Amino acid sequence: MLRFVVTLFAVITSSTCQKYGCLEGDTHKLKPSREPNMHECTLYSKSSCCYVDFTEQLAHSPVIKVNNSYWNRCGQLSKSCEDFTKKIECFYRCSPHAAHWIHPNDTAAIRSVPLCQSFCDDWYEACKDDSICVHNWLTDWEWDESGENHCKNKCIPYSEVRKPDQLKQKKMALRVLFFFLNIWV
Ligand SMILES: *[C@@H]1O[C@H](CO)[C@@H](O)[C@H](O)[C@H]1NC(C)=O
Ligand SMILES: *[C@@H]1O[C@H](CO)[C@@H](O)[C@H](O)[C@H]1NC(C)=O
Protein backbone atom coordinates (compact mmCIF):
# COMPACT_ATOMS: atom_id res chain seq x y z
CA MET A 1 0.00 0.00 0.00
CA LEU A 2 2.75 2.41 0.98
CA ARG A 3 4.57 1.55 -2.21
CA PHE A 4 1.47 2.35 -4.20
CA VAL A 5 1.14 5.73 -2.49
CA VAL A 6 4.79 6.57 -3.14
CA THR A 7 4.46 5.62 -6.80
CA LEU A 8 1.30 7.67 -7.12
CA PHE A 9 3.02 10.62 -5.48
CA ALA A 10 5.92 10.34 -7.93
CA VAL A 11 3.53 10.29 -10.89
CA ILE A 12 1.65 13.33 -9.60
CA THR A 13 4.87 15.24 -8.90
CA SER A 14 6.35 14.58 -12.32
CA SER A 15 3.18 15.55 -14.15
CA THR A 16 2.89 18.72 -12.06
CA CYS A 17 6.49 19.67 -12.89
CA GLN A 18 5.86 19.25 -16.58
CA LYS A 19 2.82 21.46 -16.46
CA TYR A 20 4.84 24.44 -15.23
CA GLY A 21 7.21 24.86 -18.15
CA CYS A 22 6.79 27.52 -20.84
CA LEU A 23 6.38 27.27 -24.60
CA GLU A 24 9.47 28.01 -26.69
CA GLY A 25 8.28 31.10 -28.56
CA ASP A 26 10.52 34.13 -29.18
CA THR A 27 9.25 36.02 -26.14
CA HIS A 28 8.77 33.13 -23.70
CA LYS A 29 10.79 32.61 -20.53
CA LEU A 30 12.28 29.19 -19.81
CA LYS A 31 10.19 28.88 -16.65
CA PRO A 32 7.31 30.92 -15.28
CA SER A 33 7.99 33.37 -12.45
CA ARG A 34 6.33 36.32 -10.72
CA GLU A 35 5.86 39.56 -12.68
CA PRO A 36 4.32 41.97 -10.18
CA ASN A 37 4.24 45.09 -12.39
CA MET A 38 2.51 43.83 -15.52
CA HIS A 39 0.77 46.44 -17.69
CA GLU A 40 -1.62 43.93 -19.23
CA CYS A 41 -2.21 40.14 -18.76
CA THR A 42 -2.30 40.71 -14.97
CA LEU A 43 -4.20 37.43 -14.58
CA TYR A 44 -0.77 35.78 -14.87
CA SER A 45 1.26 38.10 -12.64
CA LYS A 46 1.78 35.42 -9.94
CA SER A 47 3.24 32.96 -12.42
CA SER A 48 4.04 34.24 -15.88
CA CYS A 49 5.85 32.98 -18.97
CA CYS A 50 6.19 36.52 -20.38
CA TYR A 51 8.19 39.48 -19.08
CA VAL A 52 6.72 42.83 -18.06
CA ASP A 53 8.34 44.42 -21.15
CA PHE A 54 6.28 42.20 -23.42
CA THR A 55 2.99 43.34 -21.90
CA GLU A 56 3.81 47.02 -22.65
CA GLN A 57 2.95 46.28 -26.27
CA LEU A 58 -0.62 45.35 -25.29
CA ALA A 59 -1.23 48.13 -22.80
CA HIS A 60 -2.76 50.62 -25.26
CA SER A 61 -5.27 50.80 -28.07
CA PRO A 62 -5.14 50.34 -30.98
CA VAL A 63 -2.55 47.57 -31.00
CA ILE A 64 -0.97 47.62 -34.45
CA LYS A 65 1.49 44.79 -34.00
CA VAL A 66 2.90 42.48 -31.35
CA ASN A 67 6.58 41.91 -32.00
CA ASN A 68 6.51 41.21 -35.74
CA SER A 69 2.91 40.05 -36.04
CA TYR A 70 0.57 42.70 -37.42
CA TRP A 71 -3.00 42.66 -36.08
CA ASN A 72 -4.38 45.04 -38.70
CA ARG A 73 -3.82 43.14 -41.94
CA CYS A 74 -7.56 43.16 -42.64
CA GLY A 75 -8.12 46.61 -41.14
CA GLN A 76 -7.95 47.83 -37.56
CA LEU A 77 -9.73 45.47 -35.16
CA SER A 78 -12.87 46.74 -33.47
CA LYS A 79 -12.40 47.57 -29.78
CA SER A 80 -14.37 44.50 -28.67
CA CYS A 81 -12.36 42.18 -30.92
CA GLU A 82 -9.08 43.80 -29.89
CA ASP A 83 -9.92 43.21 -26.22
CA PHE A 84 -10.59 39.53 -26.92
CA THR A 85 -7.47 39.17 -29.01
CA LYS A 86 -5.47 40.56 -26.09
CA LYS A 87 -6.86 37.82 -23.82
CA ILE A 88 -5.71 35.17 -26.28
CA GLU A 89 -2.32 36.78 -26.77
CA CYS A 90 -1.90 36.93 -22.97
CA PHE A 91 -2.79 33.25 -22.66
CA TYR A 92 -0.36 32.23 -25.41
CA ARG A 93 2.54 34.41 -24.25
CA CYS A 94 2.10 34.48 -20.47
CA SER A 95 0.06 31.54 -19.18
CA PRO A 96 2.08 28.94 -17.24
CA HIS A 97 -0.52 26.37 -18.37
CA ALA A 98 -0.33 26.95 -22.12
CA ALA A 99 2.47 24.39 -22.49
CA HIS A 100 -0.06 21.69 -21.54
CA TRP A 101 -1.36 21.95 -25.10
CA ILE A 102 1.99 22.24 -26.86
CA HIS A 103 1.88 21.45 -30.58
CA PRO A 104 3.69 18.14 -31.24
CA ASN A 105 5.52 19.57 -34.27
CA ASP A 106 6.15 23.12 -33.10
CA THR A 107 7.27 23.86 -29.53
CA ALA A 108 6.33 27.54 -29.97
CA ALA A 109 2.69 26.70 -30.77
CA ILE A 110 -0.36 25.23 -29.05
CA ARG A 111 -3.24 23.16 -30.35
CA SER A 112 -6.57 21.69 -29.22
CA VAL A 113 -6.94 23.94 -26.20
CA PRO A 114 -10.32 23.13 -24.63
CA LEU A 115 -12.72 26.07 -24.56
CA CYS A 116 -16.05 26.74 -22.88
CA GLN A 117 -18.93 27.19 -25.30
CA SER A 118 -19.77 30.51 -23.64
CA PHE A 119 -16.22 31.80 -24.17
CA CYS A 120 -16.43 30.74 -27.80
CA ASP A 121 -19.80 32.48 -28.28
CA ASP A 122 -18.61 35.69 -26.59
CA TRP A 123 -15.53 35.72 -28.80
CA TYR A 124 -17.58 35.32 -31.95
CA GLU A 125 -19.90 38.14 -30.81
CA ALA A 126 -16.89 40.39 -30.13
CA CYS A 127 -15.30 39.82 -33.54
CA LYS A 128 -18.25 39.29 -35.87
CA ASP A 129 -17.88 42.71 -37.53
CA ASP A 130 -14.15 42.23 -38.17
CA SER A 131 -12.40 40.52 -41.07
CA ILE A 132 -9.86 37.71 -41.29
CA CYS A 133 -7.58 36.32 -44.00
CA VAL A 134 -6.36 33.18 -42.23
CA HIS A 135 -8.03 30.15 -40.69
CA ASN A 136 -4.79 28.76 -39.36
CA TRP A 137 -2.16 31.05 -37.91
CA LEU A 138 0.66 28.57 -38.52
CA THR A 139 0.08 27.79 -42.17
CA ASP A 140 -2.02 30.57 -43.70
CA TRP A 141 0.23 33.62 -43.22
CA GLU A 142 3.04 34.51 -45.56
CA TRP A 143 6.09 35.53 -43.50
CA ASP A 144 8.58 37.85 -45.21
CA GLU A 145 12.36 37.92 -44.62
CA SER A 146 12.03 40.43 -41.77
CA GLY A 147 9.60 38.04 -40.03
CA GLU A 148 6.45 40.07 -40.70
CA ASN A 149 3.12 38.46 -41.55
CA HIS A 150 1.16 39.17 -44.75
CA CYS A 151 -2.20 37.87 -46.00
CA LYS A 152 -2.01 35.14 -48.64
CA ASN A 153 -5.78 35.05 -49.00
CA LYS A 154 -8.51 37.63 -49.33
CA CYS A 155 -9.88 39.28 -46.18
CA ILE A 156 -13.40 38.04 -45.41
CA PRO A 157 -15.79 39.40 -42.78
CA TYR A 158 -16.53 36.75 -40.12
CA SER A 159 -20.23 37.25 -40.70
CA GLU A 160 -19.89 36.29 -44.37
CA VAL A 161 -18.10 33.07 -43.52
CA ARG A 162 -20.79 32.19 -41.01
CA LYS A 163 -23.37 29.70 -42.20
CA PRO A 164 -27.05 30.14 -41.31
CA ASP A 165 -27.57 26.95 -39.33
CA GLN A 166 -26.52 26.87 -35.71
CA LEU A 167 -24.11 23.96 -35.87
CA LYS A 168 -22.13 25.36 -38.77
CA GLN A 169 -22.10 28.72 -37.09
CA LYS A 170 -20.56 27.20 -33.98
CA LYS A 171 -18.02 25.34 -36.07
CA MET A 172 -17.05 28.58 -37.75
CA ALA A 173 -16.61 30.24 -34.38
CA LEU A 174 -14.35 27.37 -33.36
CA ARG A 175 -12.25 27.68 -36.48
CA VAL A 176 -11.84 31.36 -35.76
CA LEU A 177 -10.75 30.49 -32.24
CA PHE A 178 -8.29 27.96 -33.57
CA PHE A 179 -6.88 30.65 -35.80
CA PHE A 180 -6.17 32.85 -32.82
CA LEU A 181 -4.82 30.01 -30.75
CA ASN A 182 -2.28 28.99 -33.42
CA ILE A 183 -3.96 25.64 -33.77
CA TRP A 184 -3.52 23.36 -36.73
CA VAL A 185 -6.98 22.56 -38.12
C1 LIG B 1 9.40 41.77 -28.70
O1 LIG B 1 9.02 43.11 -28.40
C2 LIG B 1 9.50 43.60 -27.16
C3 LIG B 1 8.89 44.96 -26.90
O2 LIG B 1 9.02 45.81 -28.01
C4 LIG B 1 11.01 43.62 -27.17
O3 LIG B 1 11.51 44.07 -25.92
C5 LIG B 1 11.54 42.22 -27.46
O4 LIG B 1 12.95 42.25 -27.59
C6 LIG B 1 10.91 41.64 -28.73
N1 LIG B 1 11.32 40.26 -28.81
C7 LIG B 1 11.67 39.68 -29.96
C8 LIG B 1 12.09 38.27 -29.84
O5 LIG B 1 11.64 40.27 -31.02
C1 LIG C 1 3.17 16.48 -37.26
O1 LIG C 1 3.99 16.08 -38.34
C2 LIG C 1 3.69 14.80 -38.85
C3 LIG C 1 4.75 14.44 -39.88
O2 LIG C 1 4.96 15.49 -40.79
C4 LIG C 1 2.28 14.79 -39.42
O3 LIG C 1 1.96 13.53 -39.91
C5 LIG C 1 1.31 15.18 -38.31
O4 LIG C 1 0.00 15.28 -38.83
C6 LIG C 1 1.70 16.50 -37.69
N1 LIG C 1 0.86 16.75 -36.53
C7 LIG C 1 0.08 17.82 -36.45
C8 LIG C 1 -0.78 17.90 -35.25
O5 LIG C 1 0.05 18.70 -37.28
Notes on the structure:
Belongs to the folate receptor family. It comes from Accipiter nisus (Eurasian sparrowhawk). One of its GO terms (cellular component) is external side of plasma membrane. One of its GO terms (molecular function) is riboflavin binding. The protein is α+β, with helices and mostly antiparallel strands and 185 residues long. It contains six helices and eight strands. The protein has helices at residues 2-19, 52-56, 79-94, 117-127, 158-161, 166-180; strands spanning 65-66, 69-70, 102-103, 106-110, 131-132, 141-143, 149-151, 156-157. The strands form four sheets. It has a two-stranded antiparallel sheet with strand order 1-2. The chain has a two-stranded antiparallel sheet with strand order 3-4. The chain is globular and about 40 Å long.
Give the helices and strands, then pairings.
Blueprint lengths: L1 H18 L32 H5 L8 E2 L2 E2 L8 H16 L7 E2 L2 E5 L6 H11 L3 E2 L8 E3 L5 E3 L4 E2 H4 L4 H15 L5
Antiparallel strand pairs: 1-2, 3-4, 5-8, 6-7
Helix pairs in contact: 4-6
Bound molecules: 2-acetamido-2-deoxy-beta-D-glucopyranose (NAG) (2 copies).
One 2-acetamido-2-deoxy-beta-D-glucopyranose binds next to helix 2.
Pfam families: Folate_rec
GO molecular function: riboflavin binding; riboflavin transmembrane transporter activity; signaling receptor activity
Family: Belongs to the folate receptor family.
